[in-house]
Known about the structure:
Layout: H1 3-32, E1 34-35, E2 50-56, E3 62-68, E4 81-86, E5 90-91, H2 93-96, H3 101-104, E6 108-113, H4 127-142, E7 150-155, H5 158-168, E8 173-177, H6 183-190, H7 196-199, H8 206-209, E9 217-222, H9 230-233, E10 245-249, H10 261-271
Parallel strand pairs: 1-5, 4-6, 4-7, 7-8, 8-9, 9-10
Antiparallel strand pairs: 2-3, 3-6
Helix pairs in contact: 4-5
Amino acid sequence: MSKKTLFRWIKVFVLLYCLVGIALYYGQERLIFAPVRLEAATPYSFKQPFTELNLNYDSSTNLNVVEFKATDRPADSLAKGVVLFFHGKGGNIASYAPDVPNFTANGYEVWLMDYPGYGKSTGPHDEASLYKYSLVFYKLARSRWQPNQIILCGKSLGTGIAAQLAAVRDCRRLILESPYYSLTSIGLRRFPIYPIGMMMHYRFPTYEYLPRVTAPITIFQGDGDRTIPPSNSARLQPLLKPGDEYVTVEGAGHNDLYTFPHFHQKLDSLLRL
Length: 273
């Protein structure tokens, strides 16, 4: 290969590298978030009792919340507590409603909040504001429940948000389903030739938050997860304190933890404590 041809290929590579890098930088919102929007007037239809409400954070931000009632309690009795559920990157509240019975059947209410841009929630969001919205969500729960009655649960993308909240507010337990060490570490794995740490607007450093969580922590991770590799989640294990648990669900992928008996047995035992 002549020097001229080699130089031409180097220019092509540099051009492609820059173009892909620019696309990643400006398109990262679409890679991280995959919301399904709903009109505000769209009615919800769920199999179990629920209440819908809206939290008006400011003039442009509305946080849509659905509160699912505990199903194994008499109508006139109180639930054990509440699970604040921070969902993953795709869909909206309706997408995660099938997960709710895993908690309501154990005597807990489950409250789901859509992030801005998801479902009926509106307004802007960045990493800092998502933490602020989670705190508003927590304060709503505190108006009815004591900290030792509040379980924080995050799924996939929502694990970083749940972990940050547990680091700054007391709760009964923190449950993380398919968590990441940090969102930056996932980006580095997928795009190792780019300075992802400098490019990403969302970092969600779960590894920074877990050492500050005083409540018991339980992590569930499928060993067949291809979205958040077990090797990434396992980096959180050394950060756990005595009494915390890292539960590997054999055969599970990213979105099917609830289909495995081992997951149900462990989750049920935690919720019955």
